């Protein structure tokens, strides 16, 4: 189990140090700083073993979070916890930065006391935590006994993520499908690897204890239905269903039902939460195609031409498009011409960055650049790193579609039709690279 | 970085550096550097020519980035351009960049060399200095190739500035150190030596470093520097402290120069010229005198400088080792330092004294400080100083104070630091053995040693004590008694048990008369320790038990009981189990006579270098001062430690087939017992005759060891019939490493080849001999006609990469082809008379080399191959022999008469044969044999 948890700033100074077990001494703090943060060579492994002690770390901007243990723990569990911890902190005070952590250190210790007990992770549901760990300090009037017992029964009860007696005038539900698409493509346009990792994030403002059911175009479900009833044309359903490689669910989802019927039913927590995560690798819609053209003219000049083509419905608009073209390390000058957007040579990053605000589907745009090089003594050839891209599109590149989200609340008198539902799809680029 | 003056400050650089320092993270730093690099690239690429200032600034930035740990692959050209600037700062940055960043195989090296050449030939001293510094900083072979010729010229040129000369001397020193073959002093030698006379002290200081280094390599060429150095030294030493102005350091005149001069003088023997020597002695005396004077300053720098010169002077005195007066004075001076407050001084004093102790003149003087040193050993806080004190005690020890020193060291051992304990133990063991007046003291000391510091007593120490006890009859009883008493302590060290087990097993009978140490008591005492010991010790104890059975038959049943118990006879350790089983069987089956023979007392060990000493040498490495001297002492002590020279006959305990080397204590690799496959008696024979050349040993015998060294042993076995012979050669690899490309060739030098001897090598050898393996080769020999030379055997092989080449004479002599002829007295004298021509007879009168034992003589003559004729000669003391040498061409009959003269220890040998060469050769061969 986790023996201790440390938070460092970028210099390696300890901001938060919480030790849960005696086997972690004071020197563990320094060991991590010396061997990981201040290591001569950048440490790339998230798990480091120093003197029979394991350090699991994640980095959020300039902040290092490190969990320490001497035991043989489940590493995935530790990382899951660390990510959850980041989520909780973000939910409480926003961005994780040195200043925020310093300003909220009392809160953080309070949280750490709650979500880890003797190194065992406890309830880390933000919604539940917020009921009894508040930032406002002690309220004017102390909580009544009833409220206290309510918290206790919720936290220890079967449905730990939702308290009873929630009431909303408007029953509303927001559902976001957030996907990031990753790609590596050869210069000739051959896909070398591609996958989409997606999340379904919900914000629910529902009264009572509603039972929800979520449906999407999962290939297995669609095929089963296709077999059972012949309402849909087989060709159509085959096209629109997607194959999900793997998925994980929020703890509120009834896994037994998913296993048997592959239906996703749950009692949602109040507020924002991540319902599920999934990954697909088949039939991915690649929103953009990058066509690079690099020509070396002598030893001192390089001509680069890059064409990007948008590959989706013309009615949709892609946003925040950014193409990053790496330049050789001996670049001494760059001239760029582009039709659309703005392009600039960023010396500090050794790249030409081309930004386009908006771009509709089935369009094409191009940039050409002349790069002057300084002759060097180094005989090493330029390695030609891939051209990378960032963008945001208003559809799911995996092809996922929400088919329904039904809400049942038997005790209170509102039905599925009374709930206002909002669905949004956002596709972002993950590592979207094309070799040149 | 250059000092940033106001007009010349590089603001851009300062801003860049402060930006980098302010970076919050590594990523930010890399970004900033990338940006700067791009900026510099665009500036260098730009069409507009850069002025010197900005070039310097950018090169500086590149240098800074490089020093931060990033690769720089451009800007070299700009740096080289800076070299040709006329501004000092620009040139300086250029040189700095080049000496840091340019590697030797760069294409720019020609340009750089050109720029350096220009600067060297310029009249500007600062530029010359910069160029010299750059050469020295790079110091590569290429630099040496380009400038090694130039720099000596600058060094000795009359018009060179002093500061440039200084730089040139140091630069040359650096080049000489990297590539001595390229720096040829030759013609410059005398002028360089004369730099010692230079007016400028700085030049002298720089030059003397160079001269010291050069004269270490070829002392003869620089011999003249001695007198110059002496006069220089005397000028410095006798000068008032104000004379040298800048070179006076805290009232000490030119301390660095003095030290260097003294060190230079240490490269040479004492000067022969009386005047020079007198002056030098005067200097040294002055230095010693000055040390006595009250300090002129309380500052630590003053005393440091003064002491530095003093210690250097003392090491010179020790180096000369010829001035008893000075040596004693030095010793007294050091004696004062022994109690000095300063730890470093105490350390240095002890260290110098160690070397002083080895000089015959000062040994006595050193000995006077024994109390102080012992005190230092006890009270000193610094472990390194204590270590030196122990070294000094060891060095100053002789017969007069051995007991005191050994006792002190022993008592110190109880509290000594763990790091030096083992060394201390070895030293005590060596001193105890070397200066032992009576052996009971020695045994007491070593047993004490084992008791006090048993863990640190290495195997060699207790092997040695056993060797000595076994070799000395007079001490055996005492040893047995002391060991017995020591073993009675409730807790005793395992090493003590080993010594006890061995000695009681051998000599337990000597104390068995006393009822307090009756056999059973002895056995029970030993056996009470048995269960606490490790396996090798238990094995040793088992051997001791079986020896007990032999010594004291009354303990037989008790011991057999012990051996029979499950914990012995079914021990999981193979060695123990085997010993138990075999000893049990041996004791129950063998008769007492057999037991007594098998378990006979160990024979004395052959005398050889003490294994402890070898161990100490190994531990100390070549740096040890006093080991050689000790070794001599050891040789003196040899007669005391005595010990008969008998071959290490290992059959005494041969009943144990397992390697019971621990019992024999012969692990240190004695020269004798590397047993050959042939019989042991042969071996002894070989070594008794080891002084004689290989081939001659085999005149009278056909088998034996032809050659042996650490790697290889060559055994030989031969048989002859008429004019034919066959020789078997056995090549044994004594190492654990295989020999590769093993080839042998047999050649017959000169005329031997053509017609006299016909040699034919049979089965050729495999080119590989595995470690420990033996291979065989057969040689066929045919004698065509008589001969005197022997064929040569050449062996070549590789051992661990090194080529080994051996050439040996094969023991093929003419007498091998003898056919014995029996004849009566009458016939003999008839033939004798027939061979009366003067050239047919060869006679020799010689002194006996060996004892005149009739039986041995007979055996030798028989081995010669002739028939020994009894009752032929009227004088029964004389020997006569007859035989025919069979060659392919002819048969040569030979008669021999040997007349020993017991009183005079002389022999007269007469050989008559039908061929004059044969008689002569036979006579020569035989004269060496008796």
Automatic annotation (TrEMBL), chain A:
- Membrane topology per record: Peripheral membrane protein
User: Can you quote a single GO CC term?
Assistant: clathrin adaptor complex
Cell compartments where the protein resides: Cell membrane; Membrane, Coated pit
Q: Which GO terms describe its biological process?
A: endocytosis; intracellular protein transport; Wnt signaling pathway
Record-level Gene Ontology MF annotations: lipid binding
| Pfam families reported in the protein's UniProt record | Adap_comp_sub, Clat_adaptor_s
SUPFAM superfamilies from the UniProt entry: Second domain of Mu2 adaptin subunit (ap50) of ap2 adaptor, SNARE-like
The protein, known as: AP-2 complex subunit mu-A
Origin species: Cyprinus carpio (Common carp)
TrEMBL record, chain B:
- Tell me, in a sentence or two, what this protein's role is: Component of the adaptor protein complex 2 (AP-2). Adaptor protein complexes function in protein transport via transport vesicles in different membrane traffic pathways. Adaptor protein complexes are vesicle coat components and appear to be involved in cargo selection and vesicle formation. AP-2 is involved in clathrin-dependent endocytosis in which cargo proteins are incorporated into vesicles surrounded by clathrin (clathrin-coated vesicles, CCVs) which are destined for fusion with the early endosome.
Is Transmembrane among this UniProt entry's keywords?
A: no
Domain (Clathrin adaptor alpha/beta/gamma-adaptin appendage Ig-like subdomain): residue spans on this chain: 696-811
GO MF term set: clathrin adaptor activity
| Composition skew (Low complexity), residue ranges | 650-660
Which Pfam family is one of this chain's hits? Alpha_adaptinC2
Q: Which InterPro entries has this protein been placed in?
A: Adaptor_Complx_Large_Subunit, AP2_complex_asu, ARM-like, ARM-type_fold, Clathrin/coatomer_adapt-like_N, Clathrin_a-adaptin_app_sub_C, Clathrin_a/b/g-adaptin_app_Ig, Clathrin_app_Ig-like_sf
Any one of the GO CC terms = AP-2 adaptor complex
| Highest taxon of source | Eukaryota
Q: Where is this chain's protein located in or outside the cell?
A: Cell membrane; Membrane, Coated pit
What does the UniProt keyword field contain? Cell membrane, Coated pit, Endocytosis, Membrane, Protein transport, Transport
Q: Where is this region: Disordered?
A: 624-660
Put simply, this protein is called AP-2 complex subunit alpha
Q: How does it sit in the membrane?
A: Peripheral membrane protein
Q: Which Gene3D superfamilies match?
A: 2.60.40.1230, Leucine-rich Repeat Variant (1.25.10.10), TATA-Binding Protein (3.30.310.10)
Task: Give the UniProt family note.
Answer: Belongs to the adaptor complexes large subunit family.
């Amino acid at each position: 189990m986790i023996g201790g948890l440390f938070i460092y700033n970028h210099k390696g100074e300890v901001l938060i140090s919480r030790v849960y077990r005696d086997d972690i001494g004071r020197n563990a703090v320094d060991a991590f700083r010396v061997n990981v943060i201040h290591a001569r060579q950048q440490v790339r492994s998230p798990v480091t073993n120093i003197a029979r002690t394991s350090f699991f770390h994640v980095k959020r901007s300039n902040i290092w979070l490190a969990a320490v243990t001497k035991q043989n723990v489940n590493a995935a569990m530790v990382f899951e916890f660390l990510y959850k911890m980041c989520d909780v902190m973000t939910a409480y005070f926003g961005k994780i930065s040195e200043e925020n952590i310093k300003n909220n250190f009392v809160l953080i210790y309070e949280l750490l006391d709650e979500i880890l007990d003797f190194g065992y992770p406890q309830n880390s549901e933000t919604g539940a935590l917020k009921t009894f760990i508040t930032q406002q300090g002690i309220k004017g009037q102390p909580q009544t006994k009833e409220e206290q017992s309510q918290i206790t029964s919720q936290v220890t009860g079967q449905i730990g993520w939702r308290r009873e007696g929630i009431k909303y005038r408007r029953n509303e539900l927001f559902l976001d499908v957030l996907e990031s698409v990753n790609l590596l493509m050869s210069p000739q346009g051959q896909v070398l690897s591609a996958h989409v990792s997606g999340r379904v994030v919900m914000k629910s403002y529902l009264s009572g204890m509603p039972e929800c059911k979520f449906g999407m175009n999962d290939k297995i479900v669609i095929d089963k239905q296709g077999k059972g009833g012949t309402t849909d044309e087989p060709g159509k359903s085959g096209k629109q269903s997607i194959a999900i490689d793997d998925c994980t669910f929020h703890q509120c989802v009834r896994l037994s039902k998913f296993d048997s019927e592959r239906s996703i039913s749950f009692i949602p927590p109040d507020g924002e939460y991540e319902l599920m995560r999934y990954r697909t690798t088949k039939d991915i819609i690649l929103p953009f195609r990058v066509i690079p053209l690099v020509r070396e003219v002598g030893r001192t000049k390089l001509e680069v031409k890059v064409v990007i083509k948008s590959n989706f419905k013309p009615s949709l608009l892609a946003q925040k498009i950014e193409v990053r073209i790496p330049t050789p390390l001996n670049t001494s000058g760059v001239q760029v011409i582009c039709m659309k957007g703005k392009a600039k040579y960023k010396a500090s990053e050794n790249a030409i960055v081309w930004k386009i605000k908006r771009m509709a589907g089935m369009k094409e745009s191009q940039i050409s650049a002349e790069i002057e090089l300084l002759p060097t003594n180094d005989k090493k050839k330029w390695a030609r790193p891939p051209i990378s891209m960032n963008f945001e599109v208003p559809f799911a590149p995996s092809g996922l579609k929400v088919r329904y989200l039904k809400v049942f609340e038997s005790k209170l008198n509102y039905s599925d039709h009374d709930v206002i539902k909002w669905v949004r799809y956002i596709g972002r680029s993950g590592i979207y690279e094309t070799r040149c | 970085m250059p000092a940033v003056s106001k007009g010349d400050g590089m603001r851009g650089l300062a801003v860049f550096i402060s930006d980098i320092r302010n970076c919050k993270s590594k990523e930010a730093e890399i970004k900033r550097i990338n940006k700067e690099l791009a900026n510099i690239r665009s500036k260098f690429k730009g069409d507009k020519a850069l002025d010197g200032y900005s070039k310097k600034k950018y090169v500086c930035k590149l240098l800074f980035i490089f020093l931060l740990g990033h690769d720089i692959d451009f800007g070299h050209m700009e740096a080289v351009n800076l070299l040709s600037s006329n501004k000092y700062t620009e040139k300086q940055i250029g040189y700095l960049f080049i000496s840091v960043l340019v590697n030797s195989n760069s294409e720019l090296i020609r340009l750089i060399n050109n720029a350096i050449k220009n600067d060297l030939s310029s009249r500007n001293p600062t530029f010359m200095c910069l160029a010299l510094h750059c050469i020295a900083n790079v110091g590569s072979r290429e630099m040496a190739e380009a400038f090694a010729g130039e720099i000596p010229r600058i060094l000795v040129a009359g018009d060179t500035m002093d500061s440039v000369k200084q730089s040139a001397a140091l630069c040359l020193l650096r080049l000489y150190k990297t590539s001595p073959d390229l720096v040829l002093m030759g013609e410059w030698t005398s002028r360089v030596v004369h730099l010692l006379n230079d007016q400028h002290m700085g030049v002298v200081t720089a030059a003397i470093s160079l001269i010291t280094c050069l004269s270490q390599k070829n002392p003869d060429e620089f011999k003249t520097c001695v007198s110059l150095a002496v006069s220089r030294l005397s000028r410095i030493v006798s000068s008032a402290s104000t004379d040298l102005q800048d070179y006076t350091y805290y009232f000490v005149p030119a301390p660095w120069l003095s030290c260097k001069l003294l060190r230079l003088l240490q490269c040479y023997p004492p000067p022969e010229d009386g005047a020079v020597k007198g002056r030098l002695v005067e200097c040294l005396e002055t230095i010693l005198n000055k040390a006595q004077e009250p300090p002129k300053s309380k500052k630590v720098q003053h005393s440091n400088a003064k002491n530095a010169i003093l210690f250097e002077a003392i090491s010179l005195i020790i180096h000369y080792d010829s001035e008893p007066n000075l040596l004693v004075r030095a010793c007294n001076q050091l004696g004062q330092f022994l109690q000095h407050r300063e730890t470093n001084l105490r350390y240095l004093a002890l260290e110098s004294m160690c070397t002083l102790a080895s000089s015959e003149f000062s040994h006595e003087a050193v000995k006077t400080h024994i109390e102080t040193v012992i005190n230092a050993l006890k009270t000193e806080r610094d472990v390194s100083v204590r270590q030196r004190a122990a070294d000094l005690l060891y060095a100053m020890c002789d017969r007069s104070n051995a007991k005191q020193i050994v006792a002190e060291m022993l008592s110190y051992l109880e509290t000594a630091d763990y790091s030096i304990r083992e060394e201390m133990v070895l030293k005590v063991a060596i001193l105890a053995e070397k200066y032992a007046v009576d052996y009971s003291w020695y045994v007491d000391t070593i047993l004490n040693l084992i008791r006090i510091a048993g863990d640190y007593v290495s195997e060699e120490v207790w092997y040695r004590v056993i060797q000595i006890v076994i070799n000395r009859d007079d001490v055996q009883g005492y040893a047995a008694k002391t060991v017995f008493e020591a073993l009675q302590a409730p807790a005793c060290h395992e090493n003590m048990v080993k010594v006890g087990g061995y000695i009681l097993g051998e000599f337990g009978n000597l104390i068995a008369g006393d009822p307090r140490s009756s056999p059973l008591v002895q056995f029970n005492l030993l056996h009470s320790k048995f269960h606490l010991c490790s396996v090798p010790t238990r094995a040793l104890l088992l051997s001791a038990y079986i020896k007990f059975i032999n010594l004291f038959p009354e303990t037989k049943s008790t011991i057999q009981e012990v051996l029979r118990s499950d914990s012995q006879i079914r021990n999981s350790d193979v060695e123990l189990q085997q010993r138990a089983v075999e000893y049990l069987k041996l004791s129950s089956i063998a008769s007492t006579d057999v037991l007594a023979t098998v378990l006979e007392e160990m024979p004395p060990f052959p005398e050889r270098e003490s294994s402890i000493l070898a161990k100490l040498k190994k531990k100390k490495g070549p740096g040890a001062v006093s080991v050689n001297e000790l070794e001599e002492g050891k040789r003196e002590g040899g007669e005391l430690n005595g010990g008969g020279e008998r071959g290490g006959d290992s059959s005494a305990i041969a009943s144990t087939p397992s390697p019971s080397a621990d019992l024999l204590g012969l692990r240190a690799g004695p020269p004798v017992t590397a047993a050959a496959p042939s019989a042991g008696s042969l071996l002894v024979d070989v070594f008794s005759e080891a002084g004689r050349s290989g081939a001659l040993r085999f005149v009278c015998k056909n088998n034996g060891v032809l050659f042996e060294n650490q790697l290889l042993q060559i055994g030989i076995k031969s048989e002859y019939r008429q004019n034919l012979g066959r020789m078997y050669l056995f090549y044994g690899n004594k190492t654990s490493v295989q020999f590769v490309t093993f080839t042998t060739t047999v050649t017959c030098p000169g005329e031997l080849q053509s017609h006299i001897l016909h040699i034919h090598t049979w089965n050729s050898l495999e080119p590989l001999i595995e470690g420990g393996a033996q291979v065989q080769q057969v040689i066929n020999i045919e004698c065509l006609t008589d001969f005197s030379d022997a064929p040569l055997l050449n062996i070549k092989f590789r051992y661990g990469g090194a080529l080994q080449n051996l050439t040996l004479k094969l023991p093929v002599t003419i007498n091998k082809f003898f056919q014995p002829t029996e004849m009566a007295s009458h016939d003999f004298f008839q033939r004798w008379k027939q061979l009366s021509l003067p050239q047919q007879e060869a006679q020799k009168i010689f002194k006996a080399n060996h004892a005149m034992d009739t039986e041995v003589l007979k055996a030798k003559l028989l081995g010669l191959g002739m028939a020994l004729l009894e009752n032929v000669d009227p004088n029964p003391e004389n020997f006569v022999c007859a035989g025919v040498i069979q060659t392919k061409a002819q048969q040569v009959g030979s008669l021999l008469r040997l007349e020993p003269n017991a009183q005079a220890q002389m022999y007269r040998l007469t050989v008559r044969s039908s061929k004059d060469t044969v008689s002569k050769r036979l006579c020569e061969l035989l004269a060496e044999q008796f």
